[in-house]
Amino acid sequence: MSSWPHTGVLIVNLGTPDSYSTADVRKYLREFLSDKWVLDINPIVRFLLVNLIIAPFRAPKSSKNYQKLWTANGSPLKHYGYSIQDMLQMQLGAGYEVQLGMRYKNPSIKEALQKLMAKKVKKILVIPLFPQYASATTGTVIDEVQRQISKYWLIPELHIISNYYDNAAMLSCYANNAKTYLAQVQYDHILISFHGIPQRHILKGSTGYCKLGNCCDAISAQNHFCYRAQCYATARGIANELQLSQNQYTVVFQSRLGKEPWLEPYAEDTIKRLPGMGYKNVLVLAPSFTADCLETTMEIGDEYLHLFKANGGTHLQLVHSLNDSPEWVKVLKEMVLKY
Predict the structure, then answer these.
(1) 293-317: buried (b, 16+ CB within 10 Å) or exposed (e) per residue?
(2) Cα–Cα dist 59/288, whole Å
(3) What is the CA radius of gyration of the chain?
(4) For residues 290 and 276, what is the distance between their CA atoms, to the nearest angstrom?
(5) In terms of DSSP H, where are the helices of the chain?
(6) Sign of the Cα pseudo-torsion (65, 70, 75, 79, in order)
(7) E strand or H helix at 211, and its extent?
(8) Dihedral class, residue 255 (left if φ above 0, else alpha if ψ from -120 to 50, else beta)
(9) Residue pLDDT, tens place only, 160-181
């Protein structure tokens, strides 16, 4: 049997600075926030806002957070990405070529595609490491993959998995991670936190169906691509795995930037209220992330913990993400084989 890899697998995450230095963080922020899929505003206004205000003033603070996050293996996001690449390659075998790409910074999607094309693969399967579809994550990955692949004269068959928010095996992975904490401590309440996006992103993708209300209580033909609806579906799936009733968990959205309306309820506001409701020990899952990163380890595990205690809480515990667990790699393998 030939060892020629017929299928290329491109796993993609959002990205990370090359180092925690202020200069590298500033470069990362400029690339990230200059993306029209992330800041969907007037290009001139975006350029001025990013280069004159956000990147210069935010980079020093972000650099300190990245320094706290950094490990002996560098950025956790990149470390886990390479680990998954190697583990998935071993699981799939010689008929496949697996490469990691980042939407921003390194290793770039361009570099990853170059390696796949050099192997002369017949088809490429793209798996963005975001379970729920959002234009600012999966959408921009798809856009960049198409932009880079279009530069080739001969283009292989291309498949993109745009979402897998309801993948039963993946939901079990998140739930099993939570069970390791639930077996040790009696928690009063569980938060299921998703990365927030501006409400306008939801409304732009809606055909008039979305009301940012109970329209997301079930997936339908009208909202099956709605990020908010997919987040709630993921939360319901994990809650079912953990046998939680509706009053035992709350869905929140984190990482809000600016003053315009983002998806609610906001994580910070909810965390402030929980101690007054009698919830002193709270467990937090973050299933819009598949690997621990700045938004999980630092925002939830550090900033939200201090906020919770400042408002009378005792302990707020972050559940570790899927990272490079063998169970998660098995889920990815099954996704590849299915397609």
Answers:
(1) bbbbbbbbbbebbebbeeeebeebb
(2) 24
(3) 20
(4) 31
(5) 22-33, 43-49, 55-69, 76-92, 109-118, 140-149, 168-182, 199-204, 227-241, 267-273, 305-310, 326-338
(6) negative
(7) none
(8) left
(9) 999 999 999 999 999 999 999 9
**Looking at residue 210, what is its pLDDT?**
78
In angstroms, rounded to a whole number, what is the distance separating the alpha carbons of residues 316 and 308?
Answer: 7
Residue 28 structure tokens: 């990362």
Which residues make beta-bridge pairs with 100?
11
pLDDT at 257: 86
Can you tell me the distance from the alpha carbon of 8 to that of 3, in angstroms, rounded to the nearest whole number?
13
Phi and psi (nearest 5°) for 210? -70, 130
Tokens at 244, concatenated:
């939680």
C-alpha of 92 from chain center? 24
Structure tokens at 258: 């600016």
329 to 121, 285, 297, 333: CA distances (angstroms): 22, 19, 21, 6
